[in-house]
Write a structure and sequence with these properties.
This protein is α/β, with parallel strands linked by helices and 261 residues long. It is 40% helix and 13% strand. The protein has 10 helices and 7 strands. Bound molecules: zinc ion.
Length: 261
């Protein structure tokens, strides 16, 4: 069980802007959903986005080589691309289509997807801690130049890029006054309850209090979510029934605060 504490939030209020059953009173507030890959916001937060129009859907790893040759295993399994395709451009276009369905605003950073971060694809960008620092700097600048009322960041399940994105966002929440909520990465969150519990425990040990704020009534619309997920056409085959699982699943989220500095 996590202990909730009140922390001063931006605007001088101690009431989080997003509070389960009362979320409809906060429709006018602006949110930024941080998505590790180009389909993660659609899979994990479509219902939320529909309930909160004009949310920014920021994808961190929306970059890659202009020509992907040969296709790495994930892209090959999609049976959608050909060797040499600009996979990133295709997937960015899919994300823009999904955002249109959700009335959301796409934001794409150019950090390379993990499957391309090797010399074989000509990657010369930062790795490991330097990559985390570079992403952190970009997010911090964005928070300053285009502030919103709250950020939704991934719990960090199922994939190393998700974990990395989550860790960067949590570090940011730790040293700034960003109002932050954590969302469960789907479909992993509906498949790996052990990992969810482990990750929540690990965050508590790092000095965070997480209070579950999953809406008691379904928000948004499952039809919009289904369409937004389907807009990621290239991923249909790879995700298969797991996409349907993500559409049916409850979009879980938690309010994040610090128990220590
Ligand atoms: Zn992902």
């Amino acid at each position: 069980m996590h202990r909730a504490i009140a922390v001063p939030l931006r605007g001088g209020t101690e009431t989080p802007p997003l509070a389960g059953a009362t979320y409809t009173a906060n429709v006018g507030q602006q949110f930024r959903v941080v998505s590790p890959h180009l389909d993660d916001a659609a899979l994990s937060c479509s219902r939320f986005a529909v309930a909160h129009p004009h949310a920014r859907l920021l994808t961190v790893f929306a970059g890659g080589p202009a020509r992907v040759d040969p296709l790495p295993p994930w892209d090959r399994a999609a049976r959608f691309f050909r060797d040499g395709d600009d996979v990133t451009a295709i997937r960015r276009a899919e994300d823009r289509a999904a955002c249109e369905i959700l009335e959301a605003i796409p934001e794409h950073l150019d950090f390379w997807d993990g499957q391309y971060r090797s010399a074989a694809y000509g990657y010369t960008g930062p790795a490991d801690a330097a990559l985390e620092a570079a992403i952190s700097l970009r997010l911090e600048r964005l928070a300053a130049s285009d502030p919103v009322d709250a950020w939704l960041v991934p719990l960090g399940l199922g994939h190393s890029d998700h974990r990395l994105t989550s860790d960067v966002c949590l570090a940011l929440a730790q040293r700034t006054d960003l109002v932050t909520y954590v969302y469960g990465d789907l479909p992993y969150c509906a498949e790996r309850e052990d990992e969810v519990l482990e990750r929540l425990h690990s965050l508590a040990q790092r000095g965070f209090a997480l209070v579950e704020k999953t809406p008691t009534k379904p928000e948004g619309s499952s039809a919009h979510k289904r369409e937004a997920v389907r807009a990621h056409r290239s991923q249909r085959r790879s995700l298969g029934r797991r996409a349907r699982r993500a559409v049916r699943a409850t979009e879980r989220r938690w309010a994040l605060s610090r128990t220590s500095t």
